[in-house]
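Team,

Forwarding the record for the chain on the shared tracking sheet. I've put the sequence and predicted structure together so nobody has to dig through attachments.
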Amino acid sequence: MDYIKSMRLKQWIKNLLIFVSMFTSSSFSYDNFFSLLYIFVSFSLVVSSTYIFNDFIDIDTDSRHPTKSSRPIAAGKISKKNGFTFMFFLFLLGNLTLYFLDSRLILFSFLYTVITYSYSKKLKYIKYVDISVIALLFVLRILIGSFATSVPTSTPLILFVFFISLGIAAGKKLSIMKNDLVTDSNVKDFLIISYSEDNLLVTLKSTLQLSLITYIIWVIVVKSLILNSLSSVFLAISCIFLFFFIDKFIGNSFLGLTEEIIEQVKDDKSLTYPALLFAVSLLIGLIF
């Protein structure tokens, strides 16, 4: 169970972005879906291996963190030898499966791995690069799905994902800075030295506002002109729910509550409902 926990299966939800190109381009097919499903699982194994690597890099800091200290590696439940063995097993299994599915996807996998390795070792200690790298990794997930199915992704949609990822990353950093329970942390020390709360708050607000603007542009320019009126109505409604989600997320970040966004969305109903309603209205708008 500790090894399963170290894989952070909840974080696999981020990899659902692999399916975005197929659904948003109205090119759904069972062949594409199952192909992307296999890619999703394989790539998620690779991503889990990078989480384990990062846990070893941050083991000292995580062991003093109020919530991360319960992670198996930080808590000492998995030895360094066994942890690295498991990490390499996941990495090799994921990449071998990707290779047999589509050998070209190995390039995306290694690019993701190199970027996350660089982030863990160095890039997360460079101002603005730290949040930009996180956003880039989200965009990379979309490109994997687009490349695998030969379905292009529109520029406004890519910009939307990039900007909302930037905002979420900025909210995470702001929450770390404002969390008094996080002490003796290299990341927090870097944030305090490199940023002010106003820096991160302005970045948070501006990038999330840009994400809303680019999403509205995608709805109006890319989708609504080629969809029927009912579909356009649901896509317009999704813009409203996205606004409510963004507004609440900004407020929670200012309170220092969004360090773990997935847990926050799951536990805070004022975030859960807008997120779910946004996803449902978007899917209905794309399907009908």
